[in-house]
C-alpha cells in the first residue's frame, strides 16, 4: 500500500522508502512533478496518481463514487489538507477560476455586440440561465453576484479571491 512509502508533511507527500527494488527515489524527497494541468502527479507501482487525491485518502479514506477532491483556492499544487474538500462534480463547477478568454473580468458577464449591452448569465446543473442585459457593467456584475449567492456558488468562483471591484 502506498501509505507505507510516503508521509504527508506541509501540504505534500515525501518518500519514506523506495516503492520497490528498482525504484529510483531519494528518501525525503517530494513525490512526482507538476503536470501541464498544474496537478502534482507521480507514478506508484505502475499507476499514475494525483497527489491531492492520495492526501485526501490518507486523511479521510476512500473518495466515494461521484465525488471529487476540490482545491478551494484554485491552486492545483497546493495540497494542504485544509485547502482540499470533497464535493460533487456539480459543486466543483461552482468553484472554478475565471476563464482566460473572459474579457469583462467577471465570470458570467460579457459584452453583447448585437444589443450593445452587458449580458449576465449563470449555468446551474448544465442549464444556462439569463440574468438580463444591462447598459452598465456594474449592474450586470451585481446580477451575477446575487445569482452566485442564490445558487450557492463558492466565494472563490470566478477568481482566486472571489469577486473584487
Task: Summarize it.
With 165 residues, this protein is of the alpha+beta class.
Keyphrases for this structure?
3 helices; 3-stranded antiparallel β-sheet; elongated; 17% helix; alpha+beta; disordered C terminus; 165 residues
Per DSSP, the total helix count is 3
The Rg value, from CA coordinates, equals 20 Å
User: Structural class per helix/strand content?
Assistant: alpha+beta
Helix content, binned percent: 10-25%
In round numbers, the mean pLDDT is: 87
What general outline do the C-alpha atoms trace?
A: elongated
Largest sheet descriptor? 3 strands, antiparallel
Number of strands: 10
Order of helices and strands: EEEEEHEEHEEEH
The strand line-up of the biggest sheet is 3-4-5
Q: What is the beta-strand fraction?
A: 25-35%
Note poorly predicted spans: 160-165
| Euclidean distance between termini CA atoms | 48 Å
Q: How are the secondary structure elements laid out?
A:
Elements: E1 6-9, E2 12-15, E3 33-34, E4 40-44, E5 47-50, H1 51-60, E6 67-71, E7 84-88, H2 89-92, E8 109-112, E9 117-124, E10 127-134, H3 137-150
Antiparallel strand pairs: 1-2, 3-4, 4-5, 6-7, 8-9, 9-10
Describe the structure.
It contains three helices and ten strands. By secondary structure, the chain is α+β, with helices and mostly antiparallel strands. It has a three-stranded antiparallel β-sheet. Residues 160-165 have low confidence and may be disordered. It has helices at 51-60, 89-92, 137-150, and strands at 6-9, 12-15, 33-34, 40-44, 47-50, 67-71, 84-88, 109-112, 117-124, 127-134. Helix content is 17%, strand content 30%. The chain starts with 5 loop residues before the first strand and ends in a 15-residue tail after the last helix.
Amino acid at each position: 500500500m502506498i501509505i507505507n512509502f510516503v508521509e504527508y508533511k506541509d501540504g505534500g507527500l515525501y518518500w519514506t522508502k523506495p516503492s520497490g527494488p528498482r525504484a529510483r527515489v531519494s528518501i525525503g524527497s517530494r513525490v512526482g512533478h507538476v503536470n501541464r494541468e498544474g496537478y502534482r502527479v507521480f507514478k506508484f507501482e505502475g499507476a499514475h496518481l494525483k497527489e491531492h487525491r492520495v492526501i485526501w485518502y490518507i486523511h479521510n479514506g476512500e473518495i466515494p463514487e461521484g465525488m471529487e477532491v476540490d482545491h478551494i483556492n484554485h491552486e492545483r499544487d497546493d495540497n494542504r489538507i485544509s485547502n482540499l474538500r470533497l464535493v460533487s462534480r456539480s459543486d466543483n463547477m461552482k468553484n472554478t477560476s475565471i476563464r482566460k478568454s473572459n474579457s469583462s473580468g467577471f465570470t458570467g458577464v460579457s459584452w453583447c455586440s448585437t444589443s450593445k449591452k452587458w449580458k449576465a448569465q449563470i449555468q446551474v446543473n448544465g442549464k444556462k440561465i439569463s440574468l438580463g442585459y444591462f447598459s452598465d457593467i456594474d449592474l450586470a456584475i451585481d446580477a451575477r453576484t446575487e445569482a452566485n449567492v442564490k445558487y450557492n456558488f463558492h466565494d472563490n468562483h470566478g477568481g482566486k479571491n472571489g469577486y473584487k471591484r
